[in-house]
Amino acid sequence: TSNQTWWQDTVFYEIYISSFQDGNGDGIGDFAGLTSRLGYLQDLGVNGLWITPFYPSPKVDNGYDVADYFDVDPDFGTLADFDHFIEEAHRRGMKVIIDVVLNHVSTDHAWFREAASDPKSKYRDYFFFQDAPNGWSSFFGGSAWSKEPDGSQVYYHKFAPEQADLNWQNQAVRDDMKAMLRFWLDKGVDGFRFDVINFLSCDGIGAENPVDEQGKQIHLNDIDQLGIYPCVRELCGFVREYAAQKKTAYFLVGEVGDEALAKLAPYQGPDMLDVVFNFNLGSIDSFDICRVYQELKDMEKHLSGLPTIFFNSHDMARSMSRLCHENQAAAAALAALTLMAKGVSFLYFGEEIGMSNFIPGNIEEMKDIQAINHFNLAVSEGKNQRQAYGDALEKCRDKSRSYMSWNKSDFSGFSRSKPWIGAANVVHSPNVEDQRNDPESLWHWYQKLIFLCRDNPALAFGNYDHLSLDEKLLHLSRRWDDHIVHIHINFSREKKLIDRQNFREILTSRGISPCEPDYLPPFGVLITREIENAY
Ligand code: TEU
Ligand code: CA
Question: Could you name the domain of life of the organism this protein comes from (predicted)?
């Protein structure tokens, strides 16, 4: 087929900028550090990078509270460092997509400052100011309304009070955001990850939300508003027009934090997003292959475009702890699923060495606003410190935000000085250096899978020829043209008989015994192809 684009044979890798590599020794990751690790990323094989927000920000929500869309935060470097990074990434054949936060701005942003200091300012209508709050709750806990600093009204924020929601009904907001996208397109980025794209307030403040039996608010009227679709179409149309002028293609992925496929589907399409960053797999909390299989089938059935495949991000606990319970073999099996299933695969830094969760020992060690808010909420409800810590830990996204473990030196080679966040409380204490020296390591397994995924057209572009689950033995076949690849993954703790059918083996995980080549060991993986010299 003729409509293949570069992002289909791209393996994306999310860089949480403050935790990847510190270049100047202040304990915070930055562009200089990241650029110095591009060779590493090239060796690993990932060819698409997603960079989390790096714009000037008070970092109440670690950069998802943008104070200026046209610059780089001094913690992360300068615009020149950014340009150099893009240039070096491109030189190494990697594409770069950046995270843009469209739903809200920091209350330090000039728009909000002007809106709050002068009720007659044109920026007043960039936000939602009212005399009194409605009942909508914030995703970080508590009311979604806060009193404006010096005035008498309240303003709306779906997240922290320091993240004021923009009024997307206002054409001026949409135009300003398009100017922002143009600025970064001109700088050479290859696409965008639109943060919480289904949250944009396009229909204003409407009906109250219902609550469930536990009294928890169901976000029925504040998200997925009908007015969002034309907004998304306008943004995507703008980028596609730019693409047409440049005779190139940009990748547009939008975060839609929902698992209801009927809600996801309308965001995807030729005049909408290329793919939605959907949580059908990512939100699975304890590993259940039946559930994963069901989600794969449902996504296949209900999404017209490709799904995204990931089990890790900066918003969730690490899969090594959450799903694999520190079991390396299980992590290898999950890696095969992540990279071989049909869809756009997103890896998260540190996943390739099996990094575990970081468990902050007390509230002072928690950096995540969501955790801190829940702690304060619990205390205000009369819970004791221990219970409040428990509530906070449950919500705490710092688990996956600790710094990259490069080697055994102090601060793991991430920085020369004390990092901004604590060290992962690791069981295996994996690090890149050791794993690269061990050909049997998880790192090498990821590397093999990544290159296979990039280089084999059936894995890049192919549809499912077969998708089945038999007693925890997952069998996927992907076909493109006359290329056919079979993937068998044993998600059980028993060995499983498989039918090799004399297909040529391309990749196997450790543990297949030469005496019993037809048996997959627990968590074993076998990948074969049907046609000789198929690629
Ligand atoms: O996440 C949106 C989102 O849905 C999460 O906040 C989610 O509700 C939460 O993590 C569940 O634990 C995006 C960003 O990825 C996140 O880091 C930001 O905090 C958020 O938007 C606000 O910008
Ligand atoms: Ca730094």
Answer: Bacteria
In degrees rounded to 5, what are phi and psi of residue 254? -120, 135
Residue 77 CA to ligand 2 center (angstroms) comes to 8
Question: Using only C-alpha atoms, what is the Rg of the chain?
Answer: 23
Q: Is 14 in the pocket of ligand 1 (CB under 6 A)?
A: no
With vertex at residue 26, the alpha carbon angle to CA 372 and CA 66, rounded to the nearest 5 degrees, is 50
Question: 501 has which bridge partners?
Answer: none
- Beta carbon of 195 within 6 Å of any ligand 1 atom: yes
How deeply is 451 buried, as exposed, middle or buried, from its count of CB atoms within 10 A (0-12, 13-18, 19+)? middle
Decide: residue 300, CB within 10 A, 0-12 exposed, 13-18 middle, 19+ buried. Answer: middle
- Of 99, 148, 255, 398, the catalytic one is 255
Which CATH code is given to the segment(s) 6-103+172-358+400-447? 3.20.20.80
Give the distance (Å) from ligand 2 centre to CA of residue 21.
8
Mutate to test the pocket of ligand 1, among 17, 54, 64 (most ligand atoms within 8 A of CB): 64
**376 and 382 Cβ atoms separated by less than 8 Å:** no
What pTM was estimated for this model as a whole? 0.97
The pLDDT value given to residue 534: 46
Ordered strands of the 251-256 beta sheet: 275-278, 251-256, 191-194, 95-100, 48-51, 12-15, 344-348, 308-309
CATH class of 111-156: alpha beta
Class of domain 463-529: mainly beta
pLDDT along the chain (535 residues), means of 10: 80 98 98 98 98 98 98 98 98 98 98 97 98 96 94 96 98 98 98 97 94 92 94 98 97 92 93 96 94 96 94 98 96 98 98 96 97 96 97 97 95 96 78 96 97 94 96 96 94 93 84 84 94 54
CA distances from 454 to 10, 383, 441, 535 (A): 6, 51, 20, 12
Residue 412 CA to residue 506 CA, distance in Å, equals 34
Closest to 60 in 3D by CA, of 26, 116, 90, 101: 101
